[in-house]
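Q: Please design a sequence for this.
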């Protein structure tokens, strides 16, 4: 049987900014899903990249005093570095200045045009360069965009997309696909926005040059009052096309396109849900292309209660967190702290608290205590549980750690499908707490004095719990989980979610390497423990 495929994307990030914790958050969330799907036997394609055209980037390059191409080459590299820094397992990295993307975005335009959905007109209204978005007078708040960004008056010839004609089709699509926009609060927001009526969308600009030329654009016949300059594609149409261009569109016979379109999930922040849940499906319908299965909009991080901004000087750089707290600790914190979909507040104090309580004191402590007892008392080999009948405590504990074939795989899959990372991690922490309680109740150091077989059985059950926890944390903490699985001498082909059952339990007598600590306790400098 062909493995099921899974295509996941991050937004492509603007290169006018340095990567920060917000970008790292989206990419890590996607990475967790991609890794989970791979470990569950799916054929996965995971795309990220950079959005390099538009007026905002052109302005940033001018401010830096360099040519846009030179500017985007250097800044795009920071986002590529972010993928390495955060251990993101993307399969491709697309840049909108690449030839493959430009040709593809132009092909998408042509298809929409051939189908009669693009016409030439004139745009008169406000434009926010920071949001790269158009606003009507009525939408402004105190003379600014609703996001607080400055707006400028624009009056220029423009191509338009007939978005107003897609209102009913979009509403019917949302109705037929209730999970298309997630979580539900975002869905309600978008449904009421679309019900409020859609205006045709300006999809080209003539007043700057840094972008993809509109294909086949000709100066209009004299006297029409329309374009005489060459048009550049609106940066959002250009950017959204990346999800297709990376698969080889317009070659619908390209292997990646055949295997992976439509996308399973476009992960975005709530700031750009409208572009993904309204414009993008309308563009795709206009080009006769299948629509993605889901757009998930996660929440927004603030820093110590404040909006993150360069002017406040409170931008949190992922590299600093990784250097101070560790990579897997940072990945864990990002997804553990806030229910995915909600807004979150980053605080250093919380980060230290979460790392110490979940990782050092709970999972790390369990691994450390168990492995050092095994090293000391079982000749560094997996002990056996032979000749010891399981009591109630053992039964309850083993029930909690094993994924039974009857129902749990579907339950776990559904939790990932709905991006309930916070709950998945809370469940893992609960199992580790139970394991630490189990050690205390069984007191293997006392059992040793009564009957060594009892101690060996307890340690065996504990090793089993560590094996299951390590398999479960793989999507979140790939390095640490593999360190733990190596310490249990688990072969590479026994580390999938399928192996979370007793059928794949550790084999007594297996040699174990000397134990090493995995999650050190984080101590604030200058503070005694
Ligand atoms: O919008 N909290 O790029 P962008 C949470 N190029 N997530 C955050 C965040 C924060 N404080 N700040 C940023 C663009 N993000 C377009 C996208 S896609 C076809 C084009 C994350 O560099 C979040 O995912 O402004 C948000 O949607 C994205 O970065 C915006 O990145």
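A: Design:
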């Amino acid at each position: 049987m062909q493995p099921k495929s899974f295509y996941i994307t991050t937004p492509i990030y603007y290169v006018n900014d340095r990567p920060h914790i917000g970008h790292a958050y989206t990419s890590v969330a996607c990475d967790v899903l991609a890794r989970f799907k791979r470990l569950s036997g799916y054929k996965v394609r995971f795309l990220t990249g950079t959005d390099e055209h538009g007026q905002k980037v052109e302005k940033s390059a001018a401010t830096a005093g360099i040519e846009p191409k030179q500017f985007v080459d250097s800044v795009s590299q920071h986002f590529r570095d972010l993928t390495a820094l955060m251990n993101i397992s993307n399969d491709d990295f697309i840049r909108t200045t690449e030839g493959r993307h430009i040709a593809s975005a132009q092909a998408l335009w042509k298809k929409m045009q051939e189908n009669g959905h693009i016409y030439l007109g004139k745009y008169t209204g406000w434009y926010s360069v920071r949001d790269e978005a158009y606003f009507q007078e009525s939408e402004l708040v105190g003379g600014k965009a609703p996001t607080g960004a400055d707006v400028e008056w624009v009056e220029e010839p423009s191509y338009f997309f007939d978005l107003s004609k897609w209102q009913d089709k979009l509403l019917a699509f949302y109705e037929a696909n209730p999970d298309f926009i997630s979580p539900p609060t975002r869905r309600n927001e978008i449904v009421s926005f679309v019900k409020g009526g859609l205006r045709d969308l300006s999809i080209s600009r003539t007043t700057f040059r840094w972008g993809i030329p509109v294909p086949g654009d000709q100066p209009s016949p004299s006297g029409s009052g329309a374009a005489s300059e060459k048009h550049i594609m609106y940066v959002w149409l250009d950017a959204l096309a990346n999800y297709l261009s990376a698969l080889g569109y317009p070659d619908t016979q390209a292997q990646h396109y055949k295997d992976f379109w439509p996308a399973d999930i476009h992960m975005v922040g709530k700031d750009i849900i409208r572009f993904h849940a309204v414009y993008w499906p309308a563009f795709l319908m206009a080009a006769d292309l299948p629509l993605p299965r889901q757009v998930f909009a996660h929440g927004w991080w603030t820093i110590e209660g404040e909006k993150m901004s360069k002017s406040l000087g409170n931008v949190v750089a992922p590299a600093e967190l990784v250097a101070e707290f560790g990579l897997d600790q940072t990945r864990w914190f990002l997804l553990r702290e806030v229910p995915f979909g909600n807004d979150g507040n980053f605080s250093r104090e919380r980060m230290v608290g979460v790392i110490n309580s979940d990782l050092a004191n709970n999972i790390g402590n369990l691994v450390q205590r168990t492995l050092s007892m095994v090293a000391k008392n079982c000749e560094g080999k997996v002990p056996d549980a032979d000749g010891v009948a399981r009591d109630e405590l053992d039964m309850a504990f083993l029930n909690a750690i094993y994924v039974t074939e009857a129902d749990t795989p579907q339950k776990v899959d559904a939790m990932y499908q709905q991006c309930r990372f916070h709950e998945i991690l809370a469940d893992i922490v609960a199992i580790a707490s139970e394991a630490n309680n189990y050690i205390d109740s069984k007191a293997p150091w006392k059992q040793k004095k009564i009957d060594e077989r009892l101690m060996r059985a307890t340690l065996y059950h504990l090793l089993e719990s560590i094996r299951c926890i390590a398999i479960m944390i793989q999507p979140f903490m790939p390095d640490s989980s593999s360190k733990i699985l190596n310490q249990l001498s688990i072969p590479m082909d026994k580390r999938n979610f399928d192996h979370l059952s007793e059928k794949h339990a550790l084999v007594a007598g297996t040699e174990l390497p000397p134990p090493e600590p995995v999650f050190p306790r984080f101590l604030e400098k200058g503070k005694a423990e």
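Q: Thanks. Anything notable?
A: The two ends are 55 Å apart (CA to CA). The first strand starts at residue 5 and ends at 14.
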